[in-house]
Amino acid sequence: MMIIMHPGASREQIDAVIAEIERHKLTSHPIFGVEQTIIGAVGDGHYVLKEEFEALPGVLEVQRISKPYKLASRQFHEQDSVFQLDGFTVGGTEIPIIAGPCSVESREQILEIAQAVKEAGANALRGGVFKPRTSPYAFQGLGEEGLEYMAEAREKTGLPIVVEVMAVSQISMMEKYVDVFQLGARNMQNFNLLRAIGETRTPVLFKRGMSATIEEMLMASEYILSGGNTRVMLCERGIRTFETATRNTTDINAIPVLKKLTHLPVILDPSHSTGDSAFVSAVAKAGVAAGADGVIVEVHQDPPHAISDGKQSLTPEAFAKMVKQIKAVAEAVDRRLVAQHERA
Ligand code: PEP
Ligand code: MN
Hints:
single chain, alpha/beta, Alpha-Beta Plaits, TIM Barrel, 11 helices, 16 strands, elongated
């Protein structure tokens, strides 16, 4: 339910509405606008009468949110969510590019590739230290040692770092290092993990599950939002289809569909969605043309010898070429890449 207050409603009237929401065991999510306050009442409120809230002093209108997800919906928050990440904004006109290897493999590897992606135009550095591998015998990541290397790479380049968190038990240790938590496709419906991430205030790159519908994705993101962590970026990373020519199928449709349904920024990962470096640039450009608010790409200095996802990793040269082309596509759709001078 959304309770829209009169433009002149007093703080006492707003507080009284919040108290009434909480009396019904719902949680309140006020948005204090310049002119008007809107209060979201979230929870199982189907039995609560709309009329009861309409009768409270200062209330202009009460609307039920028809979608099964609430805080993520455009009905709740009409304007695009725009938020700050070290040195740039996401969700606005500017398009950030996040790049780096699939896995942190060694100190030398990450420091070298961090510098290379920065020079080629990246705004943030990615690198996994806990890897969700299909086989338990495959490389599982360097763990906290890898985070120390990522932190050193941030210090040397100024790029904020994006790292996947796989378990609730990793959160408090990782929070000290990372700028953005990546929530991986395989954990999209790990509701305990989602709730625990929702308790933090670390921004989240939230990946679509490989067999998740757009609605399931939005409902899962609601677990994070309802904990009060509002800086969530949704990431299309390809879904499983009958097609086997590529690792996954990029659901390009998901980009404009998500932009219609939600106010959250939408990021495309063409590396995992194609699984092949030969197709990454083409699909990245298609994503930006379709309205993506950012791109996350795997880049490695020696793809054939990468420990994970080498086949889909771009070389720094191919990445630099892709960035130039994305810039032109962004401008064609009235967007622009994060300006060089704003880069950390
Ligand atoms: C990754 O980013 O390396 C990764 C494992 O991604 P996903 O969760 O989308 O498979
Ligand atoms: Mn990967």
